[in-house]
Amino acid sequence: MFGDSVTEGSTSKSSSEWRNSINYRDSGTGDDPFSSSSRRSCPTWESYTVFRKYDEEMLFLDRISAQKLSETESLRAIEACPRSISERIVHKLTTKNRKSSHQFGRGNPYQELETAYVAQICLTWEALNWNYKNYQRLKATYSREEDDPGCPGQIAQQFQQFQVLLQRFIENEPYEHGRRPEIYARIRNAAPKLLQVPEFRVSSSEDNDKKAGFIHVSVSSNKFARVMEDAIRTFMNFLKEDKEKPCDIFKAFFKRNSRQTVDPTYLHLMRKSNKRKKLRIKDLRRAGKCFRKRKLKEEEEMEILMSLIDLKVVSRVLRMTEISEEQLHWCEEKMNKIRVWEGKLQRDSSPLFFPTH
């Protein structure tokens, strides 16, 4: 998927080379800002493995994004205004070679940049969803309010920061140049915590906090629930703002007859199924056949929102410039986790990691 670049003289690496160059947390280096060595303190192995997978995949995709962003911008600069006759000749030759390379399945840097961006969206949603469900399961174990230990203030603050960075991105995006994947890659290079989900843990190493001179403060479970729900709503707004531009729709229309790596009929059916399922879930908010919205419990409203995010993420995958068979099967499996049966929503919230390679 993440193949060689079309830019002449590129030092682009294959996905296997990128993956081999990553310092995993068990390597003992501890120098990587994305290292998840701190996850060792997690009391549940399941949560530890989920976030290990999440951190490693995000780091892998960060490195690809940085490389492909540079190649995309360099290629655009050459295409926009070649500076000399010799450069124009080189541009003509590389354009011809690029067209022939596409026929053999090699992608251009923007397509690979977009794939990395979409993959990070999918991974982030799995981590955010896991946190919320894990927290709900823990909260349900406390029968009395006085038994509730609350949430460490440091973790609540990390989730607030996640939400604030997303909101800031949404507000600033209209003033940035380029398409969404380019803007995202550029800003994440400068602010690595953008879209980086913190891990909810029962304890936040209180002893370590004291050694570092921090005062250990707890936040009530209800307040922390609102913090997490705000983060989820902001993530939905982030997805909504990732709109397809008219020029992209125009290009997609003419690309319909071009060579595709997947069955176009199957892809079309998946898109139709996604839209149909969205409508069925939105109908759950209505009172019978009326257009008036019915009052839902807070838990029901959140479950509907999270199901719509599932489908929104899938729809973004389905409109990628290039999509593989494996990614298409992931979309189908993800949608099968959501169903409406006898007017009730059934959703499987277990993690399903996006195939990144």
Could you explain the architecture of this structure?
InterPro entries: DUF1666. The protein has helices spanning 15-21, 45-80, 85-103, 109-140, 153-172, 180-190, 206-211, 221-240, 246-255, 264-283, 298-318, 325-336, and strands at 151-152, 218-219, 338-341, 344-347. With 357 residues, it is mainly alpha-helical. The strands form two sheets. It has a two-stranded antiparallel ribbon with strand order 1-2. Strand 3 (338-341) and strand 4 (344-347) form a beta hairpin. Helix 4 (109-140) packs across helix 6 (180-190). The radius of gyration is 22 Å and the shape is globular. Residues 4-12, 18-43 and 98-106 have low confidence and may be disordered.
